[in-house]
Amino acid sequence: MSADGLLSAERRMIRDTAREFTLNEVLPVANRLDPVEGEIPLELRDKLAEMGYFGIRIPEEYGGSGLGCFEYCLVAEQLARGWMSVASIIARGNGTLTIDLLSDAQKAEKLPRVVRGEYLGAMSLSEPDTGSDLASISCRAERDGDAWVLTGAKYWCTFADGADYLVVFARTAPPPDPKRRHLGISAFMIDKPRGELPPNCHGAPIPKIGYFGWKTWELGFDGLRLPAEALIGEPGTAFYALAKGLDEARAHTAARSIGLAQGALEDAMAYAQQRMQFSRPIAEFQDLRFKLARMATDIEAARQLLYYVCDRIDGGQRCDKEASMVKYFASEMSERVTSDALQILGGAGYTKLHAVERYWRDARLTKIFEGTSEIQLRIISDNLLGKAGR
After folding, report:
1. DSSP readout, 88-116?
2. Are residues 232 and 244 in the same domain?
3. For 76-133, how does the pLDDT look when each residue is reduced to its tens digit (9 = 90+)?
4. In sequence order, which residues have a C-beta less than 8 Å from that of residue 307 and are 6 or more positions away?
5. Is residue 390 part of a domain?
6. 297-325 CB burial, b ≥16 within 10 A, e <16
7. Domain boundary among 56, 83, 115
8. Given pLDDT bands bounded at 50, 70 and 90, which one contains residue 389?
9. Per-residue pLDDT for 170 more than 60?
10. pTM, 2 dp
11. Known catalytic membership, residue 50
12. Exactly one of 39, 300, 370, 374 is catalytic; which is it?
């Protein structure tokens, strides 16, 4: 089936509804708050919940929509056209990683609250010395009777303060050998008051150049005592759940990249048709017209690849190579296209009076999180050629 054929009438409606919501509800808020590094308002989060955007991937039996990665990415692309942070916060409800680790009783108790936007999480994976190589995490959880005691440092935990719970990956057993460092890592679900950090946890926001709308934290756990039920999934095997969820996470990042690029393209087109130089709109100059044509072509190529990858994910097919391809291609494209859009606006683009600088700053991040561009190239080349000798 062609990529265009994958866009059923229902999917077009989902896409168009999300676009209308973004232009009416998200974009005005982003234009007002991002320049002053403000946070996503609770009112907007409530509207996202009313639209069902926290429950796109959650089964209908728990109040969700029970839809696929395809629909999830359609919505995320449109939301990112307004504010990437808003396209990201819906992952705090749709995270398939957390769902896979929960027991049936936990799903029945927690997931309906997630759908309503009342129970949103933050993921705590990376550490000060551990980014791409997550099998090397050193934060540890030690058994103490019926409880666990969590100690160590974490980094890049976005939404740690605003979330209702944290999912923390920690080592509960030493790896059996250097080639199986991923074993012995467990996941813990830590409930906490919204707006606060857990007890025996200190932290500070990391000063970022973009991705505003919420704070990203450095955390330190100083003997945080957790009940036995805080452990989710089988002990020592959490890395497998993490690896399983990466394809969808990378598709989501590709969707956000495409949304940023689309927003920048549309703003650049509008500006080029209004901006007069030498007695005519700059959109009449051939070099600029060709630049816009290249930008639009690159966006559409990334979008069609994303549709293909989402269809494979929803079909249950393995696609680690293809997911890495679309994450790599879309994020690299997004930085390039948003930079071109800023150039079209000239000096105006280098101000906070236009959203293009926001798209540009946020696009730069898509080449780093959910696996850097270099990590994606390694995954792709390993699939093509086999792993290189070490």
Report:
1. HHTHHHH-HHHHHHS-HHHHHHHHHHHHT
2. no
3. 999 999 999 999 999 999 875 678 889 999 999 999 999 999 999 999 999 999 888 8
4. 3, 6, 7, 70
5. no
6. ebbeebbebbbbbbbbbbeeeebebbbbb
7. 115
8. low
9. yes
10. 0.95
11. no
12. 370
